[in-house]
């Protein structure tokens, strides 16, 4: 059985509808997954680097769950990468601790698919914004897996979005993510037994 790790990078889960649903469903339905809620563990942004590196070393599949903020990851997740993915751990002549691990991005956006086009309000397609994360995987020897993304997930009561739609899409997102994780786990198990 593969070791699964979720790095949860939402800065304020109590203010999230979509990401809190995804978090809860994954936690309930994948009881053997380790979930590290960065904002809960490190409200002061002082990340325990050794603890996070040890969690990564044990993992075969690493899921990064987050809301897409200002064309990238939230600040706490960026700080996680800056602090944890160090020289001689994640890269360098002895830095192969992440090599071969599966890197699964799972995130939500407030804007819709039509917004992420050259003629949309965001001006670029969504995959273009993900290049730094994709490169991070390649540079550290991780296997970058096609992201699970759900768009138009913004809900502000009385202002934007339909709550029931966001709930339904979050539930679907969680189901897709868990299926992908199960497939990754199966492929890893097949490789081990071959």
UniProtKB/TrEMBL annotation:
Presence of keyword Oxidoreductase: yes
Positions in coiled-coil regions: 167-194
Q: Which UniProt keywords apply?
A: Coiled coil, Oxidoreductase
Q: Kindly indicate where the leader peptide sits in this chain.
A: none
Q: Does the keyword Oxidoreductase apply?
A: yes
Q: SUPFAM superfamilies annotated for this entry?
A: Flavoproteins
Q: GO MF annotations for this entry? A: electron transfer activity; FMN binding; NAD(P)H dehydrogenase (quinone) activity
Flavodoxin-like fold domain: which residues? 5-154
User: InterPro entries in the record, alphabetically?
Assistant: Flavodoxin_fold, Flavoprotein-like_sf, KefG/KefF
Q: Which PANTHER family match?
A: GLUTATHIONE-REGULATED POTASSIUM-EFFLUX SYSTEM ANCILLARY PROTEIN KEFG (PTHR47307:SF1)
UniProt-recorded name of the protein: NAD(P)H-dependent oxidoreductase
